[in-house]
Amino acid sequence: MDRAKLLPVSLPSRRRLLQSAALATLSTALLPTTRAGAKPQAIDYPQSEWSPASASNYTAADRPTSHPVDFVIIHVAQATYSNTLAIFQNPKKKVSAHYVVRSADGHVAQMVRERDVAWHAGNWDYNSRSIGIEHEGWVDKPAYFTNAMYEESAKLTAAICDTYRIPKDRSHILAHYEVPGSDHTDPGPHWDWTRYMRLVNFA
Predict the structure, then answer these.
(1) Has this prediction a pTM greater than 0.85?
(2) DSSP class per residue in 51-93
(3) Which of 24, 57, 93, 127 is least buried, going by the fewest C-beta atoms within 10 A?
(4) Residue 136 is part of a domain; what is its CATH number?
(5) What average pLDDT is seen over the chain?
(6) By residue range, what is the domain housing residue 118?
(7) What is the DSSP code string of 103-137?
(8) pLDDT value of position 41
């Protein structure tokens, strides 16, 4: 009897099995990683956590090609870390910053890609040419300005300055209140600029 007639008609050949296995391996390799602690492609600052703002709260751009990046603007949120994230993720608020720094441990969340224009300065020209960093806390509560916050924020600012060749001085690292037309007072009188700039320059 013909041995081939005893085999199931649908049985795949060894070659077909090997081809299928190779395709399965390739497909798995192309899948995005989902392991714990994996960082998405969107992060510009490797030490940050990606926590995206609503797309209704910033302007998509292609900086520094579309706009030069000349400034870092320092803010104090007048809110807790978690509430600040929630505000920037609320499409009705029409406000955002690129980064938010937590008081207790200096943890950094990135909310807007650096290439995009966050709505943080209250002045379109400065928005389009700056990176905005919010800090958890209130201008009249200096206890929020912890060692960890200063140190981690300074590392972030130094990295931004290095990326865009921004001079590490007070003409280019600005307080929110120094933006022309601003009606804000942050980061306020308790923010230690001497200490902060020293940390930025030694980061």
Answers:
(1) no
(2) -PPPGGGEE---TTTSS---EEEE---SB-HHHHHHHHT-TTT
(3) 24
(4) 3.40.80.10
(5) 86
(6) 48-202
(7) TTT--EEE-S-TTSEES-SS-HHHHHTEEEEEESB
(8) 58
